[in-house]
From TrEMBL:
Repeat as UniProt keyword: yes
Molecular function (Gene Ontology), one example: isomerase activity
Sequence ranges of Basic and acidic residues compositional bias: 488-498
Protein name: Thiol-disulfide isomerase/thioredoxin
Organism: Micromonospora taraxaci
NHL repeats: 405-435
Length: 612
């Protein structure tokens, strides 16, 4: 495993433990097991991808492997212990979770990005660190190596792990995500934590039928047998399109990385887009066979510009899908996670999670959750109505340029041209009025609202996700008199900045191929590095895209602080194996820096490293 000095894993300490039956775990309790400490935060789509990647490993190596989720929050709302407990259930986290609200463990394990994985061997030493997603194959090989080594040494202890499931809850819905009005007046709700769709009566409460068995899976078929995995957005197709396509609405089957079609009369489910593999490829502007293309956590859907637009939260883009031609492709965004307006092919987004089309069809509203922003597309250009960027959030009304949201997941265009916002982590419904350029609060005290539905009668229903229900807004809430102005707290994500010198600085991405893998240049250069800065003036030289994982940067001494935005990827293939599988490892970092005379001149970021 190398010749560098071994590093003892820091002791696990936090505010509380979840999924342990009330027991506080220590590293001594885990001695003899292989431990993966997964540093995550529940807003982060890449972290959710890793949860899904770890599930098969937890099942395969259940008697030797213990995954510990270390929850190190980005947003203020994520520091709430009740919100964390809800998220652990919502996302099916079936391993112990340590609540790390002050990010002490994050600092001690030197994490710099969400997600980060630290692998601890049965003797309590950190043997690998990796950032980002796509590490399942490499982890399996590493676990096999550790099993062989520690069985030979007698230091591996097989047996059950410390996970204790919480009591099963009983509610009609469980973490509903999105909803849509059906032609018959009923509502169709994605019952995300129960992996199904529920049709409810116009009262928003009375269940009419369930589509999906309720088990996690990806099977097509009749309503009672079909399966989903944490579905989110639902969108009715225009009648003329549905007649040709053979189904009436499309569902964003988020964790399966699929789009599913549903025939309303029978409830039959069919896969209409997505291979089921998660997208890890190059950005292109081609049309692809819809069933062959890889998607990444589709979160919401809307019919706009004569096509179905997909909020592709997993790669910070919008995609399009044509149900008649059965093709799909990229619509907006570059996959860089940040806030930048402009032509669709050049704009940056961060986990778009909600879509709604204006009454006249000219504007597509977007809830861009990780930048706590409301964005819009009009005439082929992406703009920002409300929001400052990845690190600024809060609950502040007033002029749009200074207003703040906190991780909104839904938007709903109103007939007067304004837009309602499901301001999820503020527990509020907000309204942006383009005519006055003002943001106001329509309702608050809600439990993680994630979507909004405007009924034909003009009523507004809120998908109150963490309360497991649909809630009807008071009739006067949408009038000017019904809105209020909140001047609440302003927050900025305060991750400890790295002090760097002005002038020349070397950015190094540390990447070691997983055991049994080698860098692969079958489809071009095996590595790619994209660097930019906020503000742009921070970087005198070094911005742009290249193939080397080391980059000479020149920092502007007149800019005292900023954020380096770094995206790195590495393509690998299995070595010396017939029918070798290929893998793409990718990670985005936002690295806060402070420019200080005499500080460091090298910034190392670990994409994947052994013998940490």
């Amino acid at each position: 495993m190398g010749t560098t000095a071994r590093v003892r894993a820091p002791e696990l300490r936090g505010r509380q433990w979840l999924n342990t039956g009330g027991r506080n775990l220590t590293l001594q309790d885990l001695r003899g097991k292989i431990v993966i400490a997964d540093f995550w935060t529940f807003c982060c789509i890449n972290c959710l991808h890793v949860l899904d990647e770890l599930r098969p490993l937890e099942e395969k190596y259940g008697d030797v492997l213990v995954v510990i989720g270390v929850h190190s929050p980005k947003f203020e709302h994520e520091k709430d212990p009740d919100a964390l407990a809800a998220a652990v259930e919502r996302y099916g986290v079936h391993h112990p979770v340590l609540d790390d609200p002050e990010m002490d463990m994050w600092q001690q394990y030197a994490a710099r990005a969400w997600p980060t994985l630290s692998v601890i061997d049965p003797e309590g030493y950190v043997v690998a660190t990796m950032a980002g997603e796509g590490h399942a194959e490499g982890l399996a090989r590493l676990i096999d190596e550790l099993i062989a080594t520690h069985e030979a040494k007698g230091t591996l202890h097989r047996g059950d792990g410390p996970y204790v499931p919480p009591p099963a809850p009983e509610t009609a819905l469980r973490f509903p995500g999105k909803a849509a009005q059906l032609p018959n007046g009923n509502l169709l709700v994605s019952d995300s934590a129960r992996h199904s769709l529920v049709e409810v009566a116009p009262d928003g409460e009375t269940p009419v039928r369930r589509i999906g068995s309720g088990e996690r899976g990806r099977a097509d078929g009749p309503a009672a047998a079909a399966t989903f995995s944490e579905p989110q957005g639902v969108c009715l197709l225009p009648t003329h399109v549905a007649e040709v396509a053979g189904y009436d609405l499309v569902v964003a089957d988020t964790v399966n990385h699929l789009l599913r079609g549903v025939r309303l009369e029978s409830g039959e489910v069919v896969t209409v887009a997505g291979s089921g593999r998660q997208w890890r490829a190059e950005v292109d502007d081609h049309a692809h066979d819809a069933l062959a293309v890889d998607l990444s956590s589709p979160w919401d859907l809307a019919w706009y510009d004569d096509k179905l637009i997909i909020a592709m939260a997993g790669i910070h883009q919008l995609w399009w899908f044509d149900p008649i031609k059965r093709t799909a492709g990229m619509y907006a965004g570059t996959t860089v996670e940040a806030l930048r307006d402009g032509p669709l092919a050049e704009a940056w987004m961060a986990q778009p999670s909600g879509l709604s089309v204006s009454a006249d069809g000219t504007r597509l509203w977007i809830a861009d959750s990780e930048t706590s922003a409301v964005r819009y597309i009009e005439n082929g250009v992406l703009g920002t109505a409300v929001g400052q960027g990845l690190f600024d959030f809060g609950h502040v009304d007033g002029p749009a340029e200074s207003a703040l949201l906190q991780h909104p997941l839904g938007v709903c265009a109103l007939p007067d041209g304004s837009v309602l916002i499901a301001d999820t982590y503020n527990g509020a419904v907000r309204r942006f009025d383009p005519d006055s350029n003002q943001v106001s609060t329509v309702a608050d005290g809600l439990a993680e609202p994630s979507d909004l539905v405007l009924t034909p009668a003009g009523e507004v229903l809120v998908v109150e996700s963490a309360a497991h229900r649909l809630t009807r807004l008071a009739p006067g809430a949408l009038s000017a008199a019904g809105a209020s102005t909140v001047d609440g707290p302003r927050h900025r994500t305060e991750r400890k900045p790295t002090d760097v010198s002005a002038g020349e600085v070397t950015l190094d991405i540390v990447f070691t191929p997983a055991p049994g893998q080698k860098l692969d240049e079958t489809y071009g250069p095996s590595t790619r590095l994209v660097v930019s800065a906020s503000p742009p003036e921070l970087l005198v030289e070094g911005a742009g895209t290249g193939t080397e994982l080391s980059r000479r940067l020149v920092l502007n001494g007149e800019v005292t602080a900023g954020v380096l935005q770094v995206t790195a990827q590495a393509a690998t293939c299995d070595a010396d194996v017939e029918h070798a599988a290929c893998h793409l490892t990718r990670q985005d970092w936002g690295v806060p820096v402070r420019v200080v005379d005499g500080a460091v001149t090298r910034i190392p970021l670990v994409l994947r490293g052994l013998d940490a």
